[in-house]
Design a protein that fits this description.
Elements (H helix, E strand, L loop, with lengths): L16 E2 L16 E3 L4 E2 L2 E2 L4 E3 L17 E4 L1 E2 L7 E3 L7 E2 L4 E4 L7 H9 L1 H10 L1 E4 L2 E3 L2 H4 L9 H44 L6 E3 L9 E2 L13 E4 L1 H5 L8 E4 L3 H4 L9 E4 L10 E3 L13 E4 L8 H9 L1 H9 L13 H5 L2 E3 L3 H43 L10 H10 L1
Parallel strand pairs: 2-9
Antiparallel strand pairs: 1-10, 2-5, 3-4, 6-8, 6-10, 7-12, 11-12, 13-20, 14-19, 15-16, 17-18, 17-19
Helix pairs in contact: 4-10
Length: 423
Amino acid sequence: MPVGDLLHKLPNSKVIQQGWSPKCHTHPAAEGNWGVLKTTAIQAGQFLPQHNKELPEGLEPRPSIEVEVGDLLLTCAGPRARCGVPALVRASPGRLMMSGKMYRLRPDERLDSRFLELFLLSDEAQKRIDEMKTGISDSGLNLTHGRFIQLPVPVPPLEEQNRVVAILEDRLSRLDAADMYLTAATRRVRSWASSSIEGILWRDNPSMEKVGNLLREGMRNGRSDRAVQGGETGTRALTLTAVTRNSFSDRYTKETVTTSSVAEDLWLEPGDIFVQRANTPELVGTAARYAGLPNWAIFPDLLIRLRPDETRIDGRYLVAALRTERVHRTIRARAKGLAGSMPKIDQKAIAETLVPHPDLDTQVRAIEEIAEIETALANLQRQVERQKRRSSALRRSLLAAAFSGRLTGSSTQVSEATKMSNA
């Protein structure tokens, strides 16, 4: 049966209600104040009310779009992976409004909200929803009201719905607990690695030196031109994500219209270190070292290039120091920006930052020890990701079994309803 035929009418006299996207503060709403949810408040099967922005004093709240317990929220705009994500509101602090990038649904007495949420999370439903999305690129898609209400939904008796929900919630809660354990273990190991690397770099109280005194040439900001269009030829340019992920690959580049003459002094060289001069408060000042081929790409305006004087400091040692929480915290503290804007640092802030500066032999020994720690961390992260992929696959299998009658090993009314909905 189409989902639109199974929903209560809402305050807007329709079966789907959309929110409002006013210009808000960047911080979450203080207790007692009104806030507008961010789309990140809606995760797959999980509502995170702390992901909101406070409504400015000059704007009147709209109580008609306040989120209530029992609402089933669905993202309706954003990147492909974030459009069409459902979450049932099981608890809410109140005074939170939906944004314009999400829908509210309230199933009628024939359909349990938990059952509908689980169905919307299934591969079958997500595939159908994905086919409904419209837009010119995967980075900005929309799920229209008119398309979504046509989504076919199985409607077994409520007793059967409750039984399926009980089984799934039991199995999925165990997977959630395992995922939480893996996440906590990864966090602990990363903390150990971070503190161990800092201990190596600051061992024996090394002398400290300003970054600006350890470079063979002046720092340089990059350049950001528009992306190529149509049949235009372009110049490969890094994106900020390359530095954030410490990974230089085609995945984190784009083609821009930067001319060869302009790009001449912007090409990457092996050993170049890049520092993000603008990003979120947590990520501004993030550093990474390029070790690939020369002239592979240029770098954008939001990155600052450092070229270490290898006669005084090994670039691997310098980037390790810049990436420690101790140094990164110092750089972040020097970031400037207006309220609501992206904080920025300048070349002077980096040049005046102090880093440990022992002799070159000590640096090389430190680099070798750090490499062992980073290798161990990378191996653990690969194992965790492998386990998470297995967990995700099992989660999808459970949902598929539930809505095809295979959850209990017998033909159920769920499977019959699913077949009817697919007809």
